[in-house]
Amino acid sequence: MSEQDELILFRIEDSVGIITLNRPDKLNAVSWELAAELSKLLVSLRYEDEVRAILIHGAGRAFCAGGDVDFISGDSERPMPGTSDPSRPIPRSQRKTPGGPFFEVCRQLIQVDKPVIAAIHGPAVGAGLAYALACDRRFGDTTTKMAAIFTNIGVAPDCGMSYFLPKIVGLPNALMMVETAKTFKAEQCKELGLLDELVAEGEAYKEALSYAKSLAGRASVAVDMARRMIHMSAQGATLEEILDYEGIAGVIVASSNDAKEGTASFLEKRKPVYRGN
């Protein structure tokens, strides 16, 4: 299979795993197959020690134009519960979780247990916006456009949109975005908090990669555990639960080689050299 036929491209640069959504002719719209490959890759990266941070971006003119309309409409080879002919056989696993790997991508963006940075240009709408919101930080350029576009085509938000959106833009703005499905330009996205960093056209990938590399060069065990605890808090852990987990995590992190290096470098007044273990 040639590179242009692959739905997902992956390479490692300076301990950053770079994921490219590779359906540029479809503005990287997420098909069932692409979602399945992406979720499996994220699962594997959790256990890939060479990768200390992850960057995700899109090939061509877009980050991601959402879910593939052929699948959503029920007209693809794989049936879609609710829109396909009811007489078509649907796999048992899909009946229990109709979104299948589309939803699993969102779950694995968190459970990968490493920082995930999004580099966004062009449209990031629907599922594409949901995936971007699940990332730790979003770098966009002046071509960026974002929308919770679901109700424009008569469907409800999915892929974790309802979880992440109100946490990032606040309840009133989240309600406005899902109810109107309005598209926002780059400056508006920055004002709403959908983008964390707004850079010049064509610069989002470079800036996001630089940031990801800076994280990859840090004490990875500590960074990953800190990330995990913030997500626990965001998902509703109580203060007592967080305090208990911080105690446990503190012991785990303190036993790492990087913790010893960090302490030694501080006492010796030099820059630490972290190795991610």
Automatic annotation (TrEMBL):
<dbReference type="Pfam" id="PF00378">
    <property type="entry name" value="ECH_1"/>
</dbReference>
<dbReference type="InterPro" id="IPR001753">
    <property type="entry name" value="Enoyl-CoA_hydra/iso"/>
</dbReference>
<feature type="region of interest" description="Disordered">
    <location>
        <begin position="74"/>
        <end position="99"/>
    </location>
</feature>
<dbReference type="InterPro" id="IPR029045">
    <property type="entry name" value="ClpP/crotonase-like_dom_sf"/>
</dbReference>
<dbReference type="InterPro" id="IPR014748">
    <property type="entry name" value="Enoyl-CoA_hydra_C"/>
</dbReference>
<comment type="similarity">
    <text>Belongs to the enoyl-CoA hydratase/isomerase family.</text>
</comment>
<protein>
    <recommendedName>
        <fullName>Enoyl-CoA hydratase</fullName>
    </recommendedName>
</protein>
<dbReference type="GO" id="GO:0003824">
    <property type="term" value="F:catalytic activity"/>
</dbReference>
